[in-house]
Specification:
The strands form two sheets. This protein has a three-stranded parallel beta sheet. Strands 1-2 form a two-stranded parallel ribbon. The protein is 64% helix and 5% strand. By secondary structure, the chain is mostly helical. The radius of gyration is 26 Å and the shape is elongated. The two termini are 36 Å apart. One of its GO terms (cellular component) is membrane. Keywords: Membrane, Transmembrane, Transmembrane helix. This is Cation-transporting P-type ATPase C-terminal domain-containing protein.
Amino acid sequence: MLKSENLYKPIYFETADNGSAGLAEIYPEDKYNIVRALQRKGHIVGMTGDGVNDAAALRQAEVGIAVKDATDVAKGAASGVLTVEGLEPIVDMIKVGRMIYQRVVTWVLNKLVKTFQIVVFVVLAYLLTGLFSVSIFSMVLYLFLTDFVTLSLSTDRVRYSRRPDTWDVNWLVGLGILVGVLVVVESMLLLYVGFRFFEFGHDINRLHTYVFSYLVFSGLFNVLIVRERGHFWHSKPSLALLASVLLDLVLVVAISLSGVYSLKALTIAPLAFSGSWALVASLCVNDPIKVLLVSHLHHSK
């Protein structure tokens, strides 16, 4: 048992820091100081409170929680407010918070991979072939179709982490760019097949349709791998996400086979190759490499 007069003596505070000590005869200002002392030792601190004298400590803690009947001052200082009696809802609140964090990470990774793929691929394709592999219309249509999938990520089923999460921008950017490099290489190989075997170099409008179909296929399948830090089969996507992916697949097949505006219709062979290549590259190549990258980048932190 540690008393307030001994709180600032290092030898006594080590006792309070071992997870089995209690704190007695604590004044309101001591609560804030205890939170600060634990944070200086590298801990992520959570605290519950109900009164005005708890407000400073609630605001300072990483997770300050005001109980159901807390004062307005305590509720205003806290990160969260319990709406029912007891402390059990705290566990649910932490789980939901970590799930939201995983959804945000998925959105960021998806955005990084898509942006890197489009920008680098289009530039490289132009430098190597002298042709624009996408048209303005196909890009607008691509963004319109994939935005529905991006929005549905907010409803996705995710696995919450077992340990507290912290933002690591370098980790996010590094993983996004490395996966993006893979996707660009795969896109360039698809473009080579289009020129070499399907002779799209002589029909720019069909080339636009061919590349458009692949970008959509690739974007949809890559969503399924970036939403999961492990292998893509470790968790099921939400019904809304799955439905939006399937709907986009149907639409891109219909558009590619029938043609729309400047996008000329494709035959079955190039469209089937585009979809199959995107599926195999995303789920059989990108996914296992992503798992290795996640593990390596986590260990190198």
